[in-house]
Amino acid sequence: MKGRVILVVFYFLISGNTVTGLTVGKYAGDFMAVGVGARALALGGAFTAVADDISAGYWNPAGLSRLSHVQVMMMHAERFGGIVNWDFMGVGLPLRGESAVALGLYRLGIDGIPLTRLRDPKREMGDIYFDESGRRLQNVPYAYKYTSPNDLALVGSYSSKLDDKIRIGLNARLIRRSADVYEAWGMGFDAGILVHLENRWQVGAMIRDATGTLLAWNGGRKEWILPRLQVGVGYPFQARSFSFLPILDVAIHFDNTVQTTFKMGRVSMEIMGGLEICYQNRIALRFGSNRGALTAGTGFRIAFFSVDYGFQTHSELGLTHRVSLTITDIRDKLSQNR
User: Fold this and answer.
1) Could you tell me whether strands 320-328 and 293-302 are parallel, antiparallel, or unpaired per DSSP bridges?
2) Are 8 and 239 in contact (CB under 8 A)?
3) What is the pLDDT of residues 156-214, one digit of tens each?
4) Strand pairing of 262-264 and 99-109?
5) Rg (alpha carbons) of the chain, rounded to whole number
6) Residue 139: alpha-carbon gap to chain centroid
């Protein structure tokens, strides 16, 4: 049975490059590559092996089975100096037998982009001319309307613990992209696995768009999003009142992505890593590197609230700031306070 599963996954991986009549969208799925949760951002996006909250629905759905109570997360991020807004809201529900389900809504948007045209399209830009009323004008662009491109994704997740060492998870994702009068719809699937090894080692793997994802635009264009594989390892350990979590991830792309750490033919790789230092499971400092960009952040937990902040540097486009709020154990904590 395991051999058949491996063969099916391998078939979809190689068939993603040979779908007749489709354009391989090199950047079509990039909006879903931004990441979720300020904690994960501060750790450089290396979260595949250690995801243990509602954000695991993004990083590795296998980690959702670690949830022991209902959990809600809300996140807002401003990228590149506030130009791009990235929002997430999700809820996770544990089930019997150490399994869980989750639902997440993602939105990436750029608000108020002006669409321009020349005052007189028959003239050269910058020309001086007189209109019908005799006014002296310069032929310069003006904003005739504003548009707000939006990318939305609704993701349903399921996770289950197979035995003491292995957890698995699956995602089903509905995508809608819009840009002015154009819009596209698509559906994709993800799969993840989480393995607890001896001596506290944790290893995770997540394959995004496992079967490939088709985006169909209303203008007739079709884009094919190829699978992407991310593998990570983490080693949590304790020292008195402090806990430490060093982690490392490698993301593998099959779409001939240009700006990556390593590249060989159509396959390219990116490296992410981070370190979390936590005091009494209450206050945390985090540092990391995401494809060479510095990341850092902090977090604290009070009662059933966890607030996290993270940022990432960019040499040309400014800072990315991300804040997330996680609410856990709502019913249990409220009942204790009555």
Assistant:
1) unpaired
2) no
3) 999 999 998 999 999 999 999 887 778 899 999 999 999 999 888 999 999 999 988 88
4) unpaired
5) 23
6) 43
Burial of 337 (0-12, 13-18, 19+ CB in 10 A): exposed
Gap between the Cα atoms of 274 and 47, Å rounded? 9
The predicted model gives 302-310 an average pLDDT of: 92
Instruction: Give dist(CA 294, CA 292) in Å, integer.
Output: 6
Q: Is the dihedral of CA 320, 321, 327, 328 positive or negative?
A: positive
d(CA 26, CA 253): 10
Separation between Cα atoms, residue 139 and residue 144, nearest integer Å:
14
| 113 CB-near residues (< 8 Å, 6+ apart) | 146, 147, 148, 149
> 74-115: per-residue pLDDT in tens?
999 887 666 778 899 999 999 988 899 999 999 988 766 777
The pLDDT confidence band at residue 43, using thresholds 50, 70 and 90, is: very high
CA pair distance 56, 40, nearest whole angstrom: 10
Are residues 309 and 335 in contact, defined by beta-carbon separation less than 8 angstroms?
A: no
Copy the structure tokens of residue 232: 């990570």
Q: Is the dihedral of CA 105, 228, 324, 70 positive or negative?
A: positive
Q: How far apart are CA 271 and CA 287, in angstroms?
A: 15
10 Å CB burial of residue 258 (0-12, 13-18, 19+) is exposed
Contacts of 161 (CB under 8 A, 6+ apart): 65, 97, 98, 99, 167
**Beta carbons of 51 and 43 less than 8 angstroms apart:** no
Q: What one-letter code names the amino acid at 312?
A: Q
The tokens describing 92, both together, are 């996770």
What are the percentages of helix, strand and coil residues in the chain, rounded to 5? 15, 55, 35
The whole-angstrom separation of Cα 67 and Cα 103 is 14
For residue 10, which amino acid is it?
A: F
pLDDT computed for residue 212 by the predictor: 87
